[in-house]
Design goal:
single chain; 6 helices; three-stranded antiparallel sheet
Length: 123
């Protein structure tokens, strides 16, 4: 799964929040200055080519909807982050979060408990 650009992510967030929409409906969710219709249409078509959205045809227009959930995109982003920047080491990720004080020891203990519960239930 390819990383989204800021503009692509912005459009995807609108689909995730509001569901299926036509490009003109997408425009309604933007504040001034709104992007040009053709610019927004190009972004949506690029998202469709990348497999993030698909469309349903209504006469001569298309209604688009997300093919991937926000949770799935976030999960894939974490995997990509670990793969590219932490050299496939989830231990390294947790270590970095602890060192940067983004994860407390208490939160780490909670995670360990969740892992132990998961492992017990898996058997």
């Amino acid at each position: 799964m390819k990383k989204l650009t800021n503009k692509e992510r912005e459009v995807m967030e609108l689909f995730w929040q509001h569901g299926p929409m036509f490009v003109r409906e997408l425009l309604e969710h933007y504040e001034e200055p709104k992007p040009h219709f053709n610019t927004l249409s190009t972004i949506v078509r690029r998202l469709e080519q990348q497999g993030y959205v698909c469309h349903k045809k209504y006469g001569s227009t298309y209604q688009y909807h997300a093919l991937i959930t926000e949770q799935d995109y976030a999960k894939n982003s974490i995997f990509r982050l670990v793969d590219h920047y932490i050299k496939d080491s989830y231990r390294g990720l947790v270590s970095t979060l602890l060192k940067e004080e983004k994860l407390s020891v208490g939160e780490l203990h909670d995670l360990i408990s969740q892992i132990e519960t998961y492992e017990r239930n898996k058997k």
